[in-house]
Amino acid sequence: MRVLVVGGGGREHALVRGLAASPLVDELFCAPGNPGIAALATLVPLAAEDTPALVDWARRHAVDLVVVGPERPLAAGLVDALEAAGVRAFGPDRAAARLEGSKAFARDFCRRHGIPAADYAVCTDAASAHRAVAARGAPVVVKADGLAAGKGVVVAGDDAEAHAAVDAAFAGAFGDAGATVLVEECLVGVEASLFALCDGARALDFGTAQDHKRLGDGDTGPNTGGMGAVSPAPALDEATRGRVLREIVEPTLAGMAAEGTPFRGILYCGLMLTADGPKLLEYNVRMGDPEAQVVLPRLMTDLGRLLDGATTGALGHLDLHWYPETCVGVVLANRGYPDAPAAGSPIAGLDAVAELADVVVFHAGTAARDGAVVAAGGRVLCVSALGADVAAARGRAYDAVERITWPERIFRRDIAAARAD
Ligand code: AMP
Ligand code: GLY
User: Which structural domain, as residue segments, surrounds residue 156?
Assistant: First the structure.
């Protein structure tokens, strides 16, 4: 197969690494990719959001399968455009991608199908949002409806903070994503994520992870795209996993099919494990970043066969197997992230770390300059390590982090440290 991966972050590096190892994949391309991906795939200098150019390129190069990593091209209908042009694609079409693209759609969908989630109100003007905040009272969650790269959510501990968040959203703090705002019940518990590989009718458990979304140690500071993760999620025991599959994943697949918008791709269920059982915090319609960088290194089954099977309705014939090790990933971000990451600082020591057993450094916001790797984004690297248990994996990951010479980096020192269970 000739496979094109769309995207250029750490998640896409993890997808490319898995596909590069697949005996089914003869040629691998990535648009736009990054310097880490360049070692495994041929880079195509097209932006992940340039739908017409990607469709044209895939057709002209006889690509057999396009794997779309990020949410924005999915929400914009890249899969629809590829399929209309006769190119097979892995990922949900535009209608199914609304599960992530509109939090209001997702909440209404859960209500229609009895899927456990936070109680909520959808508000399209500031006055009604202020009323909803007043009615619920703090703690309360205020969220932008649309895609805001993990940054459009305020968990307000007091009413003033919630009202300020409403004002900020309607003043355009999240751009168009904040034109509609959700005011939600604040769920209390431990967070974890479960992924499901879906072919429209069937879902296979595609692993679990626990992300660390706040910038600082001890879950302090602003929300980010994710500062590190561990897989499997320590808090998701077998029984809870079974409940999530039965109470959330299966009704989601069935509901989407019944509504005429079957879900194909990776369904990411962001969960709060509450005293009343697991509840859905959010759907994403693709692998997480950095969750992919800790889930995929544990996958034993051929990723090429799985993604191919999900697009041809052949999942029923496939089994998934995992390595028993735990994987911990530590994100190295650029000083100034998430607001205003600095750019251009050189990173050294990556070649030495590449020699370490059971450690992989995934590139995200890097660039190549005069033969050196430099920082070129917010989240720059994810250092993932496998170990016999959480402690061994995190010891190995942090040991590798210390060997990377990059003074401008910021990272959390407590990834996977707080065993939530
Ligand atoms: P989301 O982008 O919707 O996942 O929200 C980002 C983060 O905000 C989540 O990972 C949670 O930590 C928090 N959050 C979102 N919704 C709620 C909720 N209803 N109750 C408590 N925390 C929430
Ligand atoms: N790490 C959270 C996400 O990918 O949305």
Answer: 119-185
CA distance 212 to 417: 11
Predicted model pTM: 0.94
Bridge partners, 65 (sequence order): 3
CA-closest residue to ligand 2 atom 3: 288
Ligand 2 center–CA 267 separation, angstroms? 12
Tell whether 211 and 301 lie within a shared domain.
Answer: yes
Pocket test for ligand 2, best of 289, 296, 384 (most atoms within 8 A of CB): 289
Residue 323: CB atoms within 10 Å: 11
Q: What is the CATH number of the domain that holds 266?
A: 3.30.470.20
**Ligand 2 close to Cβ of residue 226 (< 6 A):** yes
3-class DSSP assignment, residue 107: helix
Nearest-angstrom CA–CA distance, 72 and 183: 24
pLDDT score at 149: 63
pLDDT digits (tens, 9 = 90+) for 274-310: 999 999 999 999 999 999 999 999 999 999 999 999 9
Ligand 1 pocket by Cβ (under 6 Å):
118, 141, 143, 150, 153, 155, 184-187, 191, 213, 223, 270, 281-282
- 286 CA → ligand 2 middle, Å: 9
- Alpha helices, DSSP H, located in 114-199: 126-136, 159-170
289 close to ligand 2 (CB < 6 Angstrom): yes
State pLDDT tens for residues 190-241: 999 999 999 999 999 999 999 999 999 999 998 888 999 999 999 999 999 9
Residue range 341-399, pLDDT digits in tens: 887 899 999 999 999 999 999 999 999 998 899 999 999 999 999 999 999 999 999 99
Q: Is residue 111 part of a domain?
A: no
**CA-to-CA separations, 243 to 40, 116, 279, in angstroms, rounded:** 38, 11, 10
**CA proximity to 4, closest of 82, 96, 97, 101:** 82
CB neighbour burial string for 166-182, b if at least 16 within 10 angstroms, e if fewer: bebbbeebbeebbebbb
281 CA distance to ligand 1 centroid (A)? 6
Same structural domain, 251 and 149: no
